[in-house]
Each structure stands twice: as structure tokens, then as C-alpha cells.
Amino acid sequence: MPERPYTVMLIVPTGIGAAIGGYAGDALPVARAIARVADILITHPNVLNGAQLYWNLPNALYVEGYGLDQFAAGTWGLRPVHQNRIGLVLDQGIEPELRLRQLQAADAARATLGLMLTEHIVTDAPLEVSLQRATSGATWGTIQNPDSLLRAAAALIQKGGAEAIAVVARFPDDPGSEALQNYRCGQGVDPLAGAEAVISHLVVRQFQIPCAHAPALLSLPLEPNLAPRSAAEELGYTFLPCVLVGLSRAPRFVLRSQSKFFPQIGDIWTDQVDAVVVPATACGGSAILSLSQTHTRIIAVNENTTVMQVPPERLNIPAIRVNSYLEALGLLVADRAGISPEALKPALTSLQNRGLK
């Protein structure tokens, strides 16, 4: 009898200054390594997006954060696909030259990568994104005209047959800010990440289809001391390529209420997740709280520090702490092989001392 696929989730919450995964796709090496251990890797755009850099992981499912939370809660399932038709939403607030850059990037993805895009649409009003920073240092944002975004997405879905939505919104330029300078030097929180999450959450919640966002920004002046983890965002005029690649094979969402009438072999549900890997100080998210109520093994990585201070112990979450992603990979290998981690340590407690009381 064939084994059930070994399924792992990799979560690095966005906008909280994660030491690994808080920059421009710098958690992608972690995802690549886990993808070689797991049969199925479920992760989110913040992990896989590296502006113009990306990596094809055939067994990875690219799931937007709100959809990931719904999946972890058992409300939505994931249905893998061969290819999606991607609709492109452009913010009316993007200047003509910068808008043309985005369209040329989309054409390049069609011609060079063979991706399937439908028509593009420009919102009927500027989205007017604003950026905010919490006292903890975490970032978030707001959209002044969310209805304009939803109308544009609805048109692409209903008239263009889009099965996934890529959004490019004009973000504020603040080249002289201390926060941006720190981020470029590898010492701060991504100033854009929180607002990006708001945009994609809005579309996924409303239409239950995959969505991801790429910000439109003016090019920054050359930075001699640029950190390697931030460098992917400095390569060109657009961050769109990685988003289009991710959405091209993003799984579709299956609502629990619909699955009983239209079940399909290959659909993935939260009870099939064997393990989830998360930064040790970022265990307060919806997905981890949901998974803590299941059989899923939760692996908390100490060295991936964040500005949050929510360890698993504070929430009574039964997690296994490891020091690094290298150690997490070893734990996943043992778990997949059905080997107790205790058996790999020099000291093993006798069952005589472990009786139920």
C-alpha cells in the first residue's frame, strides 16, 4: 500500500522583521530544502517571492496568507492545478511609465515562461495605499479605496475568466526614511509587507481565489552597503515576475461546504498536514493556533528571531523547539521516517520512569 504524502507547512509571518524570511525572498532556500524532504510543501508568497528571482518547486503549493489561515482552520481545502489563468490589476495611481514597466514584465512572463494571463485592468480610482508601523516595529497598512480593487478583480473574474489575481499597487516612495535604510542594510522590518498582506487578504476573502501583490515603486539610488538578503528587490523596475510564477500554479480553494457535493481525489485538507515550521517568537497567528488543536507537529525555530514576542509556551502550544532550520530539517527527516527524535539522542529515558499516574 503506498504511503500517504508527507506534508509540511512553512510559515514566516510577514511584516514582523523575521531574521530569515523578512526580506526579499530570503526564506526561499529554506523552502527549497524542505521541499526535498516533503512530498508536499505548503507555504505562502512571503516565503517564495523574490522580486525578479523565483525557483520552480513542483511540489510546493503557493497559498496566500488569508487562504492559509482558512486552510489551517479546516474551512477551506486546497486543489492543486496544472496552470491558472492570471488576471492583472493595475492601480490607477501608477504613473504611465511605471505602468508600462509592469505590462512589459507581464508580457515577458508570457513570452519567456509561457504563463497564461488574461486581460489587465486599471482600477477606476487610485487605491491610495498608506503604510503604518506598530509600536512593536511590525508593519501594516491601509487602502483608501478598497472597493475599486474589488470591482477590478470582479471584472477580471467574471468577464476575463481569471482564476487567480495579481495586483500591482502604487506604494508611497520614502527613499530617505530610516526604516527603509535599515531594511536595505539588513537590519529592519520590511516597510511594505504589512500593507501588501492587506491587499491580497481582501481579494482572497471576497472571491476565494488565489491572489498575490507586487508593489510599484520608483527605483532607488544605488546603495553600496546593500545587504544580500535585501538585494533581490534592487534588480529592476518591477517585483511582478515572482508573483506571476507563484500564481500560475497556485492551488484553488475548495470550501468545506462545497466539497461534500464535489469531492476530488487530490484535494488537500488540514488533517493531512504532518508538520509546520514557524519562527519561535511568532506562534500567535491564526494558522498556528488552529494547527495546535490537531495532530500536526509544530516545529519552532529559535534563530529566526522577529519583533514579535509570542513563543509557543505562552499559548500552551505543544511545540518542539529547534535552534536552526538545519536542525528542523533533521527533525522532519526523522518524522517522515517514523523515528522518534528521542532515539537520536545519547540518553533515552527508561519506560520505568514514564508510567501514567
What is the topological layout?
Elements: E1 7-10, H1 28-37, E2 40-43, H2 45-48, E3 60-62, H3 65-72, E4 76-79, E5 86-90, H4 96-113, E6 117-122, E7 129-133, E8 139-143, H5 146-158, E9 164-170, H6 178-184, H7 193-207, E10 211-216, H8 240-248, E11 252-255, H9 256-259, E12 275-279, H10 286-291, E13 297-301, E14 319-322, H11 325-337
Parallel strand pairs: 1-2, 1-12, 2-3, 5-6, 5-9, 9-10, 12-13, 13-14
Antiparallel strand pairs: 4-11, 7-8
Helix pairs in contact: 1-11, 4-8, 5-7
Structure notes:
- This protein is an alpha/beta fold.
- It folds into two domains: 7-80 and 253-342, Rossmann fold (3-Layer(aba) Sandwich), CATH 3.40.50; 86-239, Rossmann fold (3-Layer(aba) Sandwich), CATH 3.40.50.
- It is built from eleven helices and 14 strands.
- α1 (28-37) runs parallel beside α11 (325-337) and α4 crosses α8.
- It is globular.
- The mean pLDDT is 91.
In short:
This protein has helices at residues 28-37, 45-48, 65-72, 96-113, 146-158, 178-184, 193-207, 240-248, 256-259, 286-291, 325-337; strands at residues 7-10, 40-43, 60-62, 76-79, 86-90, 117-122, 129-133, 139-143, 164-170, 211-216, 252-255, 275-279, 297-301, 319-322.
